[in-house]
Design goal:
By secondary structure, the protein is of the alpha/beta class. It is about 40% helix and about 10% strand. The structure holds ligand LNO2BQTQ. The site of ligand LNO2BQTQ has 31 residues, from strand 2 and helix 4. This is Alpha-methylacyl-CoA racemase.
Amino acid sequence: MSRRSAAAIPAMALSGLRVLELAGLAPAPLCGMILADFGACVVRVDRAPRSTVAVDVQGRGKRSLALDLKRPPGAAALRRLCGGADVLIEPFRHGVMEKLGLGPEVLMHENPRLIYARLTGFGQTGKYAKSAGHDINYVALSGVLSKLGRKSENPYAPVNLLADFAGGGVLCAMGILIALYERTKSGKGQIIDASMVEGIAYISSFLWKTQSLGFWNRPRGENLLDSGAPFYETYRTSDGKFMAVGAIEPQFYEQLLKGLGLDSDELPEQLSFSDWPEMKKKFASIFAKKTQTEWCRIFDGTDACVTPVLSFDDAASHQHNKQRSSFIKNDREEISPRPAPLLSRTPAVPSLKRDPFIGEHTEEILLEYGFTKNEIAQLYSDKEFSPPARRLFAEQRDEGSLFPVSPLSCSSKRGRFVPG
Ligand SMILES: C[C@H](CCC[C@@H](C)[C@H]1CC[C@H]2[C@@H]3[C@H](O)C[C@@H]4C[C@H](O)CC[C@]4(C)[C@H]3C[C@H](O)[C@]12C)C(=O)SCCNC(=O)CCNC(=O)[C@H](O)C(C)(C)COP(=O)(O)OP(=O)(O)OC[C@H]1O[C@@H](n2cnc3c(N)ncnc32)[C@H](O)[C@@H]1OP(=O)(O)O
């Protein structure tokens, strides 16, 4: 690429943004990965020296610094790093950061521009603030879990997508961006209390606000969008695959019937609740007569709102997704979703390298944040970053297979790290 064309590539939307993400389980890593995908320089602060395995499988585009925050030099180092950062993401239950002397009153006193994002299940206050929990507990407490599941079955949590990721990682990233925008006007940072319970509840506003419309008057699994309706359901095909049907509006429902070879004049009204169970059986027996490919041939290109239920492999190779390059392959041939949404001028440019090893970039990050070689040596001598840990990092690098991967120095590879 010529120098001219290289110069013409606009910086990513978040380039220059310095983010410290304290290593956590699932939500905070997604939050950090989103920011990194869109250009932020994200440093994951891992535990040292006791970490042996990276919990973060969403380390794309991040670098790793290992610190023992329980020892005064480690906590002091984080304080100093926060002095030069824009955003701190912390994923511990309420009180942990305060116990470490790293609460917001300390860090924001030293850096009033800091956005201090606290991503927890239950939030910073309330009866459960100090309790352990996981996605399913947060979805339960939000009220949403009571709505999920098929007829006559127990409530069902759809993997850990709702709390950890939608209500947690994504909304926390949104909170950070809102706070950053506000900071351009006030010059001040702020604390973000991102509770996953509230995140899911917020995301489920439609459910709350449609209560009065009669959408949800029937028991779980018997309503319009919760697998009660025959036209909003999945159906097994003759080859053991599935089709998804979402033909809600009458004109689309008509096309569904046409594709199935049915005549609406000979059927009950679309919204006749009492006929739904029978209609489901009818649709199921028809879908079971053809393969998924055959049904795709019938419905593709129509407005019947019928699509194949794809496996991950099939999703990545589906023509539509390929046409949009919706999935990317990293340098280990691992396929994952491309960052979304697509920005027209400054789209995300995700790293295609492996995720970072724990502590892999400790020294280079500390140097970038203004530590001298002597100070870093002092941290070493204080066993903050002990020889055994260094050996471990070397072993990780040699084995190469223990951890998913991507060392990407913001300064060298993307030119988007701005030293403080
Ligand atoms: C359902 C999901 C969770 C699913 C995750 C699993 C799918 C994955 C978990 C483990 C993964 C595997 C593993 O990594 C090994 C392999 C790795 C390989 O790369 C891939 C394959 C693996 C097999 C991998 C596979 C999978 O990825 C896994 C199986 C969720 O719901 S996640 C959401 C959980 N909730 C929250 O995050 C809300 C806020 N947090 C909390 O409530 C608590 O943190 C939590 C989660 C309840 C945990 O409580 P815990 O008591 O453990 O921690 P805290 O009270 O928060 O305190 C943290 C303590 O740690 C100290 N500390 C932190 N950093 C440092 C540091 N740098 N140095 C020193 N010390 C540190 C801190 O001071 C606290 O100490 P104290 O307890 O003494 O105060």
